[in-house]
Here is the input.
Amino acid sequence: MQRQCLSSGCMFLLMLGWSLLPGPMQGWIMLPLWIVCTVLVFTGSFEAARLRRRVWLNQYLRVASPWHRLLRGGAFMAAWHLLVGALLSLFMLIKLQNLNAALWAVLALGLPLLAWLSRGLNRRMREHVVSQALPALVRRFSVPLAVGVLTAIYLVVTLNLGQPDLRGLSWGSAMAQHMQPSTSDLTVLRVLERSYIMLDLTLQWALQNGLGGAERNGWLALAGWSLLFLTGSAFIWAYVRLLVGVDALVDQRREPS
Here is the structure.
């Protein structure tokens, strides 16, 4: 558990330090950081996927069956989780560049929360699970619990942050008046930053203009709340997977089998 806290804390400080760098340095360091984050998110996600697949195969198929070998998870599953990990990591890093200090505090709260959940699950499952599978199962169950708690806190804090007044404005006027310029020197990163800022402004505009009767703008309110929940949960999911992936990667290197 001490190793997990240390590795998670180092990863958190690395991302915090990166977000505080000047625009040009931040842009050039983003590519190697994106690769590192993708590997870590993929490691935790792929481990959980193979664990689920292994349980399903052992329940329904004989070990000697060739289908058992073909379906246990290989290149196709790895490619899918690598793609998802890359997209989630990219979204997380873009969002970290514009993250409020209060939301950084929410991310910091995830460190002791994840350690507490892991410790409690490890203590309760130790007598019932074989030692080889215990770390993976603890990570498997701690992720959704941590994501659920952190997402709820994240949404509450987000709704209480100061936002530009977009009430009564059309979507085009809101974009024209409140769209912030990108600080990056890299074209790709600049496009991604502006895309995220546009998404965030669209979310705020939908929430502020979506109040009222269902006949007038109920669909706008539904879209705003759905977008808030989806972006918030995806961000927190990527963050928790990142922290768990560090511990999973260390375990895999210690026990390659």
User: Anything to note?
Assistant: The radius of gyration is 21 Å. The chain has a mean pLDDT of 78. DSSP finds nine helices and no strands in the chain. Residues 23 and 184 are 5 Å apart (CA to CA).
